[in-house]
Design brief:
Helix content: 10-25%
Order of helices and strands: EEHHEEEHEHEHEEEHHEEEEEHEEEE
Oligomer: single chain
Number of helices: 8
CATH superfamily: Ribonuclease Z/Hydroxyacylglutathione hydrolase-like
Amino acid sequence: MIKNYFYTPSKFLLDGGAMFGIIPKPLWNKRIDCDERNRITMTARIWVIRSKSKVVVVDSGLGNFHDQVFQDRYGMQYRESTESTFQREMGISTNEVTDVVMTHLHFDHAGGLLTQGDSSLTLTFPNAKLHLASGHLDYSKKATVRDSGSFHSKHIEQVINYYRFKNLLQLYQSQEGYLKIDEVNMNFIMAHGHTPWQMLPYDKNFFFLGDTVPTTAHVDLPWVMGYDMAPGVSADERSKIYKMIMEKNLKVIFNHDIKHGVGKLIKNETGSFGWIELRAVKSEDAVWEEVE
C-alpha cells in the first residue's frame, strides 16, 4: 500500500506583481488577496510518498536557518521543525527518508534540505538519495544576475558535496523519463520556462506542478510569473503538460497555494483551462494523508 502525505511547513510572502508578471493587479487581485505591501501569502508544499520500503520526499520547503533580515523581507512564519512534524504526523523519522526529489534549487524549494540545530546546520535527510536534474545543477552554479538571488549557492554547495561524497547523488539528463526509485513508480518531465531543467515528478495519481503553476490563481495559460526566466516558454510548456495531465487523469498538487492543496484540471467550453477543488487546506492543517 502506498500512502501519500502533503505537508505545508510554513508561510511566506512574495510580491504579487512579480508573481503574476504582465497580468495587471485589478485582475490577479480578484483571485488572491495581498497585504499593504502588495505581497501574497504562499507556502512551500512538500509531497511525501511512503511505501513498504521507501520514503520519498518531493521538495523540501524553505528551511529554518535564514537570518532575521531575510525572514522579515519574505514574512516567513515557520511551523515546528520538519523532523518533529514528520515524526508526529506521519510516524516517520527524517533519517528514514530514502529519496529526495528536487524540482529545482531555489531557496523556497531546497532550503529545507538543511536544518538549523542548536549550534550548526545539519542535513535534514542525511540517509536519502538526492534526485536532481544535471542541467539544473550546472545552471545553479552560473545563474544570471537576474536570478542568482534565488539560489543560496553557499548552502546548496555544501548539500551537493555531502550527497556526492556519500554516493547518494542521482542526476538526470533526459527531458523525460523514470525516477530511479525501486518500488515507488515515479516519472518526470523537465520544464525550462521558470528556470532551466526544472524536474516535475508524477506517478499514476498525482502530478507535482512545482513553479510551473504555483497556485490555483495561475492555472490560465498566460498567467505565468514575472520570476520566470522565459515566460513565453512557460506558457507553451503548460499546454503540453496540461494535455498529458488530462490524458492520464492525474490530480495536481499546487506547490505554493496556501489554501488549495490538490485539484483536477478542466477545460472550459471556451477552450481555456480551469480547476476543480479536491482538497482545500485549513490553516491548522500541517499534514494530510491520501491512501492509494
